[in-house]
C-alpha cells in the first residue's frame, strides 16, 4: 500500500502595529497631548519617527518608552476593517497564523493581552524582533529582522505595512502583501523594486488573495513514484 504524504498548510505571518491595531494613531494622540503638538496620520511620510518629530533617534525611542507607560498604549484599538473575520476564515481553512512584530520583548505581556482580547484563538505564536532598541537596551536584548524570522519558521506569506520589512522579505522569495489601510499609510507608498502586492483593506486580502475554494472538494489525491515504491500525495485546498 502506498504511503500517504500530506502537503503542509501555508504559514501566514502578520504584522501587529498598523496591520492589526491602531498603534500609530494612539502614539500621535499621546504625543500631541504630552508635547502640545498637532501631528496627524497624514504627516507620517516616513517610518522614522524622529525625522517627523525632530530630535535624535534616541529621543524618539525614549518617547516611545513613555508611551508604553500610558493609557493610550493600554487602550489601543484593533483595526476593524474585516481583519478579525478574515483571520477567522483563514484559521478555519487550516492556515498556520503567527504574528511577527517589531516590538520589544519587555512588552510581551501587554502584547499578549491585546491579542488574546481582540484576536482570541487566532494566532499560534508571537515573534518579537526587538527592533528600535535604545542604546542601553542594546546591551541587554538581541534584535532580529522579520526576514530572518520568516526564513527560520518557514513563512509563505507576510502581511505587513512597513515597506522596509516587506521589501527585505520579498527579496527572499516570500510572498508579501503590503497593507496600506485605505491608502492612508504615506510612509509605505514609496516605490519598491521588490515584487510585492499592495492591499488597502482586510476584505481585499481575503477576497483577492485567499479566495474561497470554487469546489466543495477538500483534497486532490494522486500517486507518485518514490524510489522503489509509490506514495499517495494529498494536496489540501490551501492554494492561494
From TrEMBL:
Pfam families: NT5C. Gene3D superfamilies: HAD superfamily/HAD-like. The active site is at 17 (proton donor). InterPro entries: 5'(3')-deoxyribonucleotidase (IPR010708), 5_3-deoxyribonucleotidase-like (IPR052419), HAD-like_sf (IPR036412), HAD_sf (IPR023214). GO terms for molecular function: 5'-nucleotidase activity. Transmembrane segments: none annotated. GO terms for biological process: deoxyribonucleotide catabolic process. It comes from the Eukaryota. PANTHER family: NUCLEOTIDASE YQFW-RELATED (PTHR35134). This is HAD-like protein. It comes from Hesseltinella vesiculosa.
